[in-house]
Amino acid sequence: MATVDVTRTYLELAPPHAVRRARTPAPRPALEERRPISAEEYLALYTLVGDRWHWHDRLAWPPGVLQSHLDAPGVHVWVATLHDDVVGYFELMEIPGGGVEIKYFGLAPAWIGRGLGGWLLTRAVEIAADVGAERVVLDTCTLDGPHALANYLARGFIVVRDEVYQVELKNE
């Protein structure tokens, strides 16, 4: 195990219609909400997208707890696909005070670097607005993809605060 310092950055976009839209890729991936979504299907997406960035929080949730979370009316999981391949996904969660949090967001490894991240983030913000968000919040950290923060800033998110914490990573 190696202990590393990680910086988590909290961001906000208010109002969501202020998003700076990214170009629509050609061909354009299909985007659909997965409702209902099983805990097993969700964890497959979560692992596909997040394993390389050390996403492990949801893996520790008991299946019933995760399923209850996914079935909650304020949770929305959207999946982008192209030619039957998963391009990426995002999870939105409605929060008190008229907000929506982008809980998880990312691309499958095979699709990173193809100009799809900006488009997918634009769509996440637009969908958050469609469910009534007055503001969209998210966080990223230095373990996430090297272009994640730049993508959020390019779409118009502003940094609210940073925090530094330590994480133990398995030796790889």
Can you describe this structure?
The chain is α+β, with helices and mostly antiparallel strands. The chain has one domain (about 1-35, about 75-170): Aminopeptidase. Helices cover about 25% and strands about 35% of the residues. The protein has four helices and seven strands, in the order ββααβββαβαβ. A seven-stranded mixed β-sheet has the order 2-3-4-5-6-1-7, with helices on both faces. A hairpin with a 2-residue loop joins β3 (about 75-80) and β4. The radius of gyration is 16 Å and the shape is globular. The model has no long low-confidence stretch (mean pLDDT about 95).
Q: How many helix segments?
A: 4
CATH-defined fold name: Aminopeptidase
Cα(first) to Cα(last) distance is 9 Å
Globally, the shape reads globular
Mean pLDDT metric: 96
How would you summarize this macromolecular structure in one to three sentences?
The protein is of the alpha+beta class. 24% of the residues lie in helices and 37% in strands.
